[in-house]
Amino acid sequence: MGDVSLTPLLRMVSTMFLFMPLLATGRGYYQGIYDVAPTAKSQVLEQVVRVSIIILVAVLAVKLNWSVYKMGTWAMASSTLAAVASTLFFIKFGSKLIKAKRHKFNWQLFKILVKRFVVEGGVICLLAAMIILLQLVDSFTVKNSLVSGGLTQSMAKSMKGIYDRAQPLVQLGTVIATAFATTLLPSLTEALQKRDTKAFYRSATSLLRVSLTISMAASIGMVALMPQINHLLFGSSEGSLALAVYNLSVIFAALIFVYNSILQSAGAVKPTLVAIITGIIIKVVLNSWATQWLGILGASLVTVLSLAVIAGVMNYALPSQLSKRVYREHHFLRKLIWGNLLMFIVVKLLVIVLQLTVVSPGRFGATIITVMGVIVGAGVFISYIFKFRLFSIREWLTIPYGSKILRMVQRIVK
Q1: Which UniProt keywords apply (predicted)?
Q2: Reduced to 3 states, what is the DSSP secondary structure of residue 400?
Q3: Residue 117's pLDDT is what?
Q4: Which of 300, 358, 363, 383 has the most neighbouring CB atoms within 10 Å?
């Protein structure tokens, strides 16, 4: 990482992993028996504790004039303390495991379980950590490459900080897209269990279309408003181009999660593994070179390229019939691209008009423009989807609040 002062921060956050086995097993067990309450409560408590400690540390750091490293170390302690708090929900479960009756060891069953755990569990872990692994490569290469490219140590640290602004935005966009799309997963699983090929293709098509539509809209929307979002959240518009490019990752990340759901439900694990390893290799090989030549914009481009390659390899592994149904049937992809282009142009024109006539520069002005841009952009895009029938009635109804949106748009159009 090029900075030995980060050592205490890394040591502090590493203690969090001591609590992962009980947390992962407990949450997985209760979700497996369809009782999501303990998992939900533990996650809410975890976030409350983490955020509370981070806010407290920020206040103390300002009042006591702490260094950024000391502040970071205590902020990282929030992860460990949050893990301790959320573990409280699973103490009873853990004691049951300890007291459970011991069964005779079955070597054959053990080998089967280990194989599934390593192969399927490994792929799931790689997929879940995909964005984090790409960020890990950035942690080891971006700052050093910026220095090699001619920046001073302090400037390189500053630019790396600006680059890192994209991470929560990408995570937010990806979570929104996958949350909407995963509402269709039960119907996909049911079709596979019943060996209903027609229903499987129908559900998979809807799943991919909904995911691609929402992820692309979220990504392009953030690209259109990035200078204002950057100013609103971080106090400056510096690095907005690099952040805008980075946010294109949302499209490919959302597709990757959905592709994996389809492939894994069909028992195909190898394509996901090959795709992720290929993408990470591309990131490792190209990141330093691109960052030296183009700065943080180069790192953003390589991240998007890596995710695009992962998505491309996984798409190649899907049945060709499915890809044709998703992207070519009724010119879906072409209509989707035109819809996003229309939304982008309308939002950009709105931003220009507001900047010239109404809104004063500054954080408050950025807030007004961002809120107005989101409302107008969403209105334009939803109307476009309805007008050009990108979604069937069935697909509308599978989206959370889709029926309400459908009725509202129908009333407006009429």
Answers
A1: Cell membrane, Membrane, Transmembrane, Transmembrane helix
A2: coil
A3: 79
A4: 300
Count of domains for the chain: 2
**161 and 225 share one domain:** yes
Range of the domain at 60: 1-102
Residues 62 and 111 reside in one and the same domain: no
Mean pLDDT on 133-159: 90
72 and 42 together in one domain: yes
Question: 385 and 410 in contact (C-beta within 8 Å)?
Answer: no
Residues 387 and 325 grouped into a single domain: yes
What gap in Å lies between CA 8 and CA 395, rounded to an integer?
50
CA distance 266 to 318: 10
**Domain co-membership, 67 together with 193:** no
- Predicted confidence (pLDDT) at residue 177 exceeds the cutoff of 70: no
Q: Tell me, what DSSP letter sits at residue 389?
A: T
Mean pLDDT of the region 53-62: 90
DSSP state of 101: P
140 and 65 together in one domain: no
Residues 250, 174 contacting (CB under 8 angstroms): yes
My answer on whether 88 and 237 are in the same domain is no
Q: Which of 79, 102, 125 is the last residue of a domain?
A: 102
Which stretches of 65-152 are DSSP H helices? Answer: 68-87, 91-99, 107-128, 130-148
SS3 for 36? coil
From the CB of residue 190, how many other CB atoms can be counted at a distance below 10 Å? 13
Q: Which amino acid makes up residue 2? A: G
Mean pLDDT of 121-144: 85
Rounded to the nearest 10 degrees, how much is the dihedral formed by the CA atoms of 402, 405, 406, 408? 160
For the ranges 34-48, 174-188, 196-210, 298-312, which has the lowest average pLDDT?
A: 174-188
- Of 101-110, 122-131, 396-405, the one with minimum mean pLDDT is 396-405
CB contact at 8 A, 258 and 180: no
